[in-house]
Design a protein that fits this description.
mainly alpha, 8 helices, 0% strand
């Protein structure tokens, strides 16, 4: 995490963006054609890549399961708060069939995109701190290796029990 983690953070952002895109796909597909289940099956093959596997599993579950239990398993597969909001809206639509599901999905997509923008701003602020920590860690490590290789006499006081205790105290601070 100290030297990397950028890919994992970017994958999380891509996942939230994919959830937003899929919610919009569902909204548009429902507006143009049949019901919710048919829209889920229709969008499964073209769902955004970060969540395509989970959406395909959802479509397969719909063939043997009712909509609400399949959506709950889908929420577990997605494992994202934005995905949970979309699934909650879909479950409500399955139970009560609200007329304004498309509008709700559009708003949830906009919310997910604003969350992505907020996370990107937070990550930009954190990147300065991460860079500073990386520089300090690398400089400290290089200095310690330099001392071990070229100036072992400087480190001799730390070979004693008292020296190790002082070094532990410094490390604790």
């Amino acid at each position: 995490s100290l030297l990397g983690g950028e890919a994992r953070r970017q994958a999380q952002l891509d996942r939230v963006e994919a959830i937003a895109s899929w919610a919009e796909m569902l909204r548009d597909t429902m507006a143009g054609s049949g019901g919710l289940e048919q829209s889920i099956v229709a969008t499964a093959g073209v769902a955004p890549r970060p969540i395509r596997t989970e959406v395909l599993r959802l479509a397969a579950r719909l063939e043997r399961d009712r909509l609400a239990p399949a959506l709950r398993e889908f929420a577990d597969d997605i494992d994202d708060p934005s995905g949970d909001l979309v699934v909650a809206a879909l479950i409500l639509a399955a139970d009560k069939s609200p007329k304004r599901l498309g509008d709700l999905l559009g708003r949830l997509a906009a919310f997910a995109r604003s969350e992505v923008n907020m996370r990107m701003r937070v990550e930009a602020g954190r990147s300065r701190t991460r860079t500073s920590v990386k520089v300090i860690t690398i400089a400290t490590t290089l200095f310690a290796v330099f001392l071990l290789v070229f100036n072992q006499a400087y480190l001799e006081p730390y070979d004693t029990l008292l020296g190790q205790g002082i070094l532990a105290l410094i490390g604790l601070c």
